[in-house]
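Researcher: Sequence of DHA2 family efflux MFS transporter permease subunit follows. Predict its structure.
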Amino acid sequence: MATVTQQDPGRGHPRRWWALGALVASMLALGFDLTILNVALPTMAAQLGATTGELQWIVDSYVVVFAALMLPAGLLGDRFGRRRMLVTGLGVFLAGSLAGALVDTPELVIAARSLMGLGAALVIPLGLSVLPSMFGEEERGKAVAAVTASMAAGMPLGPLIGGLLLDHYWWGSIFLINIPMAAIGVAACLLLLPESRDPSSPRVDALSTTSSALGLGALVFGIIEAPERGWGSGPVLGSFAVSAVLLTTLVARERRAVRPMLDLRLLGHRAFLFNSLAATLGTFVFSGLLFMLPTYLQEVGGSDAFGTGLRLLPMMGGLMVSARLSTLLVRRTGPRPVVTTGLVVLCFAALLGSRTEPGSGYGFTALWLTIAGLGFGLAMVPAMDAALGGIPAEEAGSGSGLLMTLRQVGGAIGIALLGSLVAGAYDDRLDTAGLPQGAADAARDSLSGAHAVAEQLGLPALARSADAAYVDGMSTVLVVCGIAALVTAALTALLLPNPRAAAPAGRPGRPGGPGATPAGAVSDADVARLEADDRQ
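Model: Prediction complete. Tokens:
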């Protein structure tokens, strides 16, 4: 059994840079996994016969498990050993990736993705919390920057790598790419990482953990199943009722806890509340767009998988540019006008995108995607930084955990709700008159199914109807996103505090300021957790 070690603050572990390289590779794989799957959704719909609802579950199962288990997983690492739980998480992620590459039904892919979400829940909170035991104070900033940058770099690279793999191999190859990187991470953790723990951390509350996982799962189930079963059907209403009971139980229990996993009292800080709202809305829209766009670009626009990855780059590029720009703007004006402006820009982009028609060229799509990316970066990055800056320093660890959880829940609901709106509109507007029942059902299941039926039966009118129905659904979703962004912009403009003294960009533990992780912003939360570990 490894000896528990703590390095002197001014010294580092002798093999620290090798270990850092392995952590960077592992985080890069997790960054890929946040976006690489999206370009594969049309291929999986065609080759696995997956319906739109099943595609939503394939994406959301990962996010739901991750959001529900991230906090207790981090606490397990604090109490039982961060290296041990990091190795466990990488092993679980590796096993889930291998299973995802080998299975051949949507249900089994969903199960594999859930397993990957469990592994990610262990890896992401602990990937940064092991750094204080390896690096001295002078080098720790560089180490944090390397790990956070690897996660951020994985997101824009994910669609490109996924598209390249799909153009040459079968859909399971997008999971296989995780295996060597995770295996390297496991070996390096076992051989190079020192063990560290914090026995004084709160205990894992099994009831709260269960309530959060099942409550969020029931909510997502109801939203995804509503288009097919009906919003007023028994199973859908029952799932919403179960979710309400479980989440209410979670809130009540956490409010009474002396050391809660989710410190909901932080929502009493106005700066934290409204900045978290802006960041969560951004994640809601971003996740929903990444679910819808690959199908539109491939099935309606005629792109291959790699071309789809390339065509998503304007949004990623706009986000990364504005994330850097937002740091300078916040120093001049404070966070409120920057966050509000970002939300207004996002509203404009969504409403512009809602004008898309089946015959619209990619130039128009690239225009509104670029504007959307600019809005995301201006709104989300300063909002996350200001949320953590708006609470006392001793609550940074709890605040980062709550902010991260809220954003992941927003992403899960975004995929579920916006995907369901697209599916409902598509089903309502698709013209299947005169088709045999089996062919009509296949056409309604997904856009790729409709194209397959149209090709088999020689019905180009069905393909045109399906394209128009999907674009109509996407336009409806973009209008909803625009309205939500505008309402949130009004709330932030009226109610968000605006401290003019921005935090220094180079403060310990958060190199580069709020622009350090523009794409996923997962690591902003983890860096705050690292700060809390430093204080302990």
